[in-house]
Specification:
The chain is an alpha+beta fold. It has helices at about 30-40, 65-75, 100-110, 110-115, and strands at about 5-10, 15-20, 45-50, 55, 65, 85-90, 115-125, 135-145. The chain is globular. About 25% of the residues are buried.
Length: about 150
């Protein structure tokens, strides 16, 4: 679970204190171990930002493949969501993976536990001297409240 440099954000709304957990393991297999450890510790999060790798190998020759393993990772993450989560975001640059697949994963996991709103779109870079965008990735987002972009 990461936000670009593997940062997971936990926000306690009532006390307005914010703490960050850093998961330095970049491969999906290690992310699963990290989440399992958080479940055992009883840690809960209001916001999860996820940018899983397309493919990876663990130290014990485990294999991570986003196409076969992402659903189970997101489902596992529902166990560390707080009672009133705010947002769950999945970001991906995996070629061939569609944004509707990411949205469906959120519908079948997070939205089954916490009713909310799901949106998805492409991620793009603005082209210089143009109103065009160069597509480079996709995202899907579950939110507890509907916010206008």
């Amino acid at each position: 679970i990461k936000l670009y440099d593997n940062i997971m954000l936990e926000k306690d709304i009532e006390s307005t204190e914010t703490s960050f957990k850093i998961n330095k393991n970049r491969q999906g297999i290690n992310q699963i171990k990290f989440i399992e450890r958080e479940i055992r510790r009883g840690n809960k999060y209001d916001i999860i930002l996820m940018d899983p790798p397309s493919f990876g190998r663990g130290s014990n020759k485990e294999i991570w493949n986003i196409e076969t393993d992402l659903f189970n990772l997101v489902k596992l993450c529902t166990q560390i969501l707080s009672d009133k989560p705010i947002m769950f975001l999945i970001n991906s640059y995996t070629t061939g993976l569609s944004m509707s697949v990411l949205a469906d994963i959120l519908k079948l996991t997070v939205n089954k536990v916490h009713q909310g709103y799901i949106s998805c779109d492409e991620i793009g870079l603005p082209m210089k001297d143009s109103d065009l965008y160069l597509p480079c990735g996709i995202f899907a987002r579950w939110e507890s409240e509907k916010y206008e972009d």
